[in-house]
Amino acid sequence: MEVALATSDDLAGSQLLLAFPEHQVPLPGGSRPSQNDIWVLARSGNGLISIAVEGKVAEPFGPTIGEWLKNASPGKAARLAFLQNELGLSQAPPATVRYQLLHRTASAVIEARRFGAPHAAMLVHSFSPENLWFEDYTAFASLFGAQVRVGEVVRAGTCGGVHLHLGWIHGNHKFLSR
Questions:
Q1: Can you state the angle between helices 99-115 and 74-86, rounded to 10 degrees?
Q2: 167-176, pLDDT tens digit by residue?
Q3: Can you tell me the distance from the alpha carbon of 25 to that of 107, in angstroms, rounded to the nearest whole number?
Q4: Distance between CA atoms of residues 33 and 170, nearest Å
Q5: pTM of the predicted model, to two decimals?
Q6: CA within 13 Å, CB half, 174
Q7: How many other C-beta atoms lie within 10 A of the C-beta of residue 130?
């Protein structure tokens, strides 16, 4: 992760302060929080950074927004509106975008505000040799006008005063077999 963060001028030289596995961030409009595989609070020369990490091997990012909204309750509509507002999206995301990417990224922004961090990052830590589901991540990043590349972290805009960064990081494949 340190190498990928170094690809961003804003996040270079980051130092880990705290890391919590399975960190939950409450979201309105439902009973389930966003559960980060790992949530990290780090510091760079540019201030604190809230980092939500989603670990993946071969599994997808869950349902698309269209699938998630099928037979939607009022709570789901409220949650989607909240996520859209948190992420500074002026219009509803396309139905083909993966819902998990929205709420995981919002959790990084929410925690950035809670800790007074000027930066939030949502990183996918992929152990897939084929970068499975990378195309879903690039489609999500395009909502912010960002182009993500494997192994790099890019600035994707600002969400309510918090600078948002997105990245796709490769895990070491040797950890797939034990």
A1: 60
A2: 999 876 666 5
A3: 6
A4: 26
A5: 0.93
A6: 0
A7: 8
